[in-house]
Amino acid sequence: MLIGKFSVIRWLLLLTWLSLPAHAGVHLYDGEQTQLLADNFAIQHEQSSPFTISDILKRRHEFIYQADNNPNYGFSDKGLWLYAELSNLSHNTDWVFSLNFSQLDTVDFYLVINNEVVSQSHQGKLQREQLYRVPTFNTSISIGEEAELFIRVQSDSSSLIAPIYVMSEAAEIRISQVDNLIWGLFYGGLFILAIYNLVLYFGSREPSLIAYVAYIVTVLVWQFVWGGHIDFFFPDSLSPLLSPYTSLIFSLIGISSGIFSLIFLETKANSPFMHPVVVAFLWLQAIMGLATLVDIFPPVWEHNLVYGIGMLSITSYIAAGFEAYGKHYKPARYFIFAWGILATGAIVGMLSLVGILPSNLLTTYCFQVAVFCEAGLFSIALMEKSRSQLENEVSQATDELRHNMELIEEQNARLDIARKDAIKASNVKSQFLANMSHEIRTPLNAILGFSKELTNLTLPVDKMEQVRIINTAADNLLTIVNDVLDFSKIEAGKLQINNQPFSPNSLIEEMVTIMSKSAHMKGLEFILELGPLPEKLIGDVFRIRQILNNLLSNALKFTSSGYIKLAVQGKALQHGIHELEIKIEDTGIGISRKDKNKLFSAFSQIDDALNRSYQGTGLGLVICQELVKLMRGQLTLKTTPGQGSIFTVVLRTNQLSQRYALSPLPEWLNKRVLIFDPHPQSRRASAQMMISLGARVYCVESIAHLQSLQEAFDYLFATLPTMKKASREQMLEALCVFNAGKRILWYSGDEPLTDFPAYTEDFEAQVRMPLTITKLEGIVHGNIKEKVSPQQSKLNTLPKARILAVDDMDMNLKLLDTWLADSPVQLTLSTSGQDSVNRCKNEEFDLILMDVQMPGMDGIQATRHIRKTPLNAGTPIIAVTAHAFKEEQERLLSSGMEDYLPKPIEFSTLITLIKRWCQGVDSSAMALPTLDWQLALKRANQNRDLAMELLREFIAHLPQAAEIIRSEWDARHYKGVQDEIHRLHGACCYTGVPKLQALANEMESALKLGNHYEVAEMLPTIILECEIAAAQADKFIQDNGAFNSH
């Protein structure tokens, strides 16, 4: 019976032993792998007093193994001994044991071989032998030798976590480098974020940025201490000072993060419920931080309280974030996400400290990873906040824009609903502006077109004044629309400069022609001071014209008496750059010093009184300033209240031509010109221009002085300004008898000879001031008054093209039909996209003007169908639309259309476009052959010798004729050009050069009509044809010289 009982006990002991985990010794093998020794250690806790290594060697039998491999041995202020048996089965003798946890107070390593301690090291954050960030023990074990490793760990403030790894020295070096790299990225990333946001703070003075920087700094300091780097870099200075106060530093992290949360979320406004809770936790963390200084609580309690209050604080921050996000504070979403990540990392770390989760690399450093991610997300949240503030500012500016747009909405109520629905965001705002542009420009196309067409008719005075009012109102409305669109492009950064060749002199004369008449109608003098400018420059002529128009219009608007002066001069710089300096001077109201800054602010005028007196959007000068900046220039202002202003624009362009327009000319060289002008500024400007042309100029300002002169003059330039309107008749009486070859009457305001027709025969011409190059050319060549209207002259130059115009609005088609009725163009009208496709199937056209927005089949769909028709697959199709944005233009051109014609359509733009795309349609001259021998024989009555002789004499004369034509044109001797072309045309009639004959005939007709612009375009063609004809005829004569022997 007793033997049976012992058998049962023996089997129970055997089963118990089998159920325990098998703990083998540590075998060291070759390779670069690291080995975690968590399940290889036996442990023994100290009870009262610390054990020495001698005591432990005697207590080997008391060590016990844990049931799991978690290297977290719980909280205890007593020491803990770890024991493992080692066997070196590798060819390596140098080994490293690393305890990857930096918060243990003491870590003592002992290597025992044959009951003797052969190597030992005393490390931990309170001991000075530690050379690395974490306790690391380097030792040697002979090949094939067995050893014992004893490790004692102790900490008053942290859980006893001892994840011990064994590795070769080579592996330890590699791991150390990777560790340094990772921590370098951690510190470097946070440091860069701190510096970046500190720089942003100095620029914006946003308080949440400096709070964020303070938070990052406290995180960096805490991690530098907690992570053990302070023991490595400052073992004897900072480490003893800061290492005992990790809890205090953690409290500072909580305080700085709480302050950041208050400022960033603006909790008083966005989280009123959680605001006092967050503030309370801030004070609680501050009190807890002070408590860590005086050691009120035991270390373990102290740490747990600090971390616990920190977690509750994080919870309050997250709750405040959710409350703010519920009030549509968008930056709070990144804030919530960031604190959520940190809270997750903190929870995982705490669960690891208390032993619920295993202690490994993930659980040990998850808090640091979460802090890094949180800091990055906070930076994104700050950017989101800045962007949100910018959106609010844009929204405020948009509200101001909406107020100004109400003037336009009153004229087109259909835009009201679209505007209110669209102006909610910047991209929707752009779409709204595009629709607004189309809807306003479309009716403006007809209003401006027909009203300007009425100005060509002879109407009663009161009716003409009504037409003028319509024109002015429509132009003002178009200006407002263009200003708003340009400002929108500038805000979006989409406004671009389109550089192309242009004539600065033509641009200046165009502006003078428009503005001088407006100034004279207001009783002002308009003065032009023009310096020598190249004939061709490269720049954005459209934008330069816009700047000039805006500044001159402002001068007209704010000047009630006196004068407006436009002064233009240029200066050649290095590398082909030509600097234009444009000054607009007026004698208007002027601007006070305090109001100057308002001029270049959007939607602003000087004060409310001016806003009522001089209506406007307040965008003009803002747009001018931005355009000048885009063209590498400057816009400056000098002004005196009550006396006037001077706007100076300096632009840099590229010089294309080396010839200057305002230079000495033969027709003016040494001519004696007397200038009579009572206005000193005007007189000085006129004299300067005539001197530049080579004339000998004399000036007088009074009739008495004029009558005292006895010598004769070639020209008398007699100026009758508006300010002398009351004494015009007395002046005319004295001027008409003055001894001069030609008397030219210059005037401002009403035409003097209309009021006093009796003096008409005494003057060669009557010309509106100021002097311009074109007006002076007209005086010399006797064509100051055009025989044909400028509009009709342009129409006469159009080819005989077949054009299809497609538009769903009858008034736009009617306008095109009115404009082109007296031209060679054959115009066909279509009112829908489908109708245009049907016409293109049966009829061939040379050009199609296609409206884009039409009901049913729109312009783009119609274009695609027309491209499939056999007759018009290659016909140029021009998009006609009121959409003003470049993106819309690019979309239309990419859809298969060749060009773009904006609404409202300008007459000159339409003519230029037709000539550009139909230039080969009516080129009967260009289609003719250069040399036609059969025609030459026919004209020589089939006499080959005579035909050859006439051809030889003709080509001998050609180079001289071409040179005379070129030189006479350069000297602006239009009569000489006409005479030489007439002789060339006559010579062509005796031989076989049909192409040159036709070109000479066309050019002679243009010269007779005074169409010098058309002549300028034809001149290079006829000169080139002279050279080609001479070359072909010379080769023909050489190849067929045998004719002379027969």
UniProtKB/TrEMBL annotation:
Annotated signal peptide? 1-24
Residues forming the Response regulatory domain are: 802-918
SUPFAM superfamilies on file: ATPase domain of HSP90 chaperone/DNA topoisomerase II/histidine kinase, CheY-like, Histidine-containing phosphotransfer domain, HPT domain, Homodimeric domain of signal transducing histidine kinase
- What GO molecular function annotations does the UniProt record carry, in alphabetical order? ATP binding; phosphorelay sensor kinase activity
Q: Which residues carry this modification: Phosphohistidine?
A: 982
Localization terms from the record: Cell membrane
Q: Work out whether the entry's keyword set contains Nucleus.
A: no
Keyword set, alphabetical order: ATP-binding, Cell membrane, Coiled coil, Kinase, Membrane, Nucleotide-binding, Phosphoprotein, Signal, Transferase, Transmembrane, Transmembrane helix, Two-component regulatory system
- Provide the transmembrane region boundaries: 181-202, 209-225, 245-265, 277-298, 304-322, 334-356
**What topology does the record note for this protein and the membrane?**
Multi-pass membrane protein
Q: Where is the HPt domain?
A: 943-1036
| Catalyzed reaction equations | ATP + protein L-histidine = ADP + protein N-phospho-L-histidine
Q: Which residues carry this modification: 4-aspartylphosphate?
A: 851
* Ligase among keywords: no
| Gene3D superfamilies from the UniProt entry | 1.10.287.130, 2.60.40.2380, 3.40.50.2300, Histidine kinase-like ATPase, C-terminal domain, HPT domain
**PANTHER family tied to this protein:** HYBRID SIGNAL TRANSDUCTION HISTIDINE KINASE J
Q: What is this protein called?
A: histidine kinase
